[in-house]
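Here is the promised in-class demo. Please do not try to memorize the tokens; focus on the logic of going from shape to residues.
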């Protein structure tokens, strides 16, 4: 599959789950902005046919190479950053959940879930196929979310772009996160406020903000339906390193807060 077709399909699936992203994208284009993606993020489980190793193989086949590794011990995650050999395509940030670090009860839920996934070898189109396994019950969802919002999100949403990220450097009129955030707030779009609206800054060469995930009506096993978080939109501004080159990596302290964009909203 050509890599551009992969991105088209990803965007299609992502915007079906994330109407706010289409709305914001349209806001920018109506202002005459050209929207360029900084990176796209994926989530997965470790130790299965669609783990980070399998993702790496697929991304390699699309011309991507891993260039950095990250760890989030408090969230039980590991991640890799990938860039394309053409340097003209968005970076990819893919993380995986270390299942063995969860409680035995939650490990059991995830083990059963993974067993119901039909695929034996991951393929490109699986990366936007959504949930490839049987639905869990609402009680299981709540049990997972209590310990890991990431696990709950991934169990329900499946394989899909968790977020697209606009490169703020490439915007003409909204190339400052403060101004961009004000635009989104004025449009009534809820933003992730964990650690402040802007995560990071010039000291770490990367500043990011993100919306809160849209809500999606999920039908759980046994027929219960509930509104749960789907995906969100992110905005990244990169600063130049002392060498003059733009910083291209990620910052764990920023990313850890960005993960929280898919937390459940509890009234
Ligand atoms: Ni991101």
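The designed amino acids, position by position:
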């Amino acid at each position: 599959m050509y890599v551009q077709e992969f991105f088209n399909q990803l965007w299609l699936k992502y915007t079906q789950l994330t109407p706010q992203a289409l709305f914001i994208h349209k806001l920018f284009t109506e202002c005459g902005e050209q929207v360029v993606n900084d990176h796209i993020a994926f989530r997965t489980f470790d130790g299965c046919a669609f783990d980070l190793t399998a993702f790496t193989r697929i991304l390699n086949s699309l011309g991507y190479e891993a260039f950095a590794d990250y760890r989030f011990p408090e969230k039980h995650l590991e991640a890799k950053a990938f860039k394309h050999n053409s340097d003209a395509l968005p970076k990819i940030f893919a993380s995986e959940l270390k299942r063995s670090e969860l409680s035995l009860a939650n490990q059991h839920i995830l083990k059963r879930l993974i067993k119901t996934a039909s695929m034996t070898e991951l393929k490109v189109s699986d990366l936007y196929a959504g949930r490839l396994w049987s639905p869990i019950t609402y009680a299981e969802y709540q049990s997972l979310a209590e310990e890991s919002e990431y696990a709950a999100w991934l169990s329900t949403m499946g394989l899909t772009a968790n977020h697209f990220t606009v490169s703020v450097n490439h915007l003409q009129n909204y190339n400052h996160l403060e101004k961009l955030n004000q635009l989104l707030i004025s449009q009534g779009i809820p933003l992730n406020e964990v650690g402040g609206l802007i995560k990071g800054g010039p000291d770490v060469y990367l500043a990011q903000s993100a919306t809160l995930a849209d809500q999606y009506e999920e039908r759980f096993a046994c027929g219960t339906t509930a509104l749960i978080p789907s995906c969100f939109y992110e905005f990244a501004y990169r600063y130049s390193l002392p060498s003059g080159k733009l910083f291209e990596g990620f910052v764990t302290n920023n990313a850890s807060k960005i993960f929280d964009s898919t937390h459940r909203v509890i009234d």
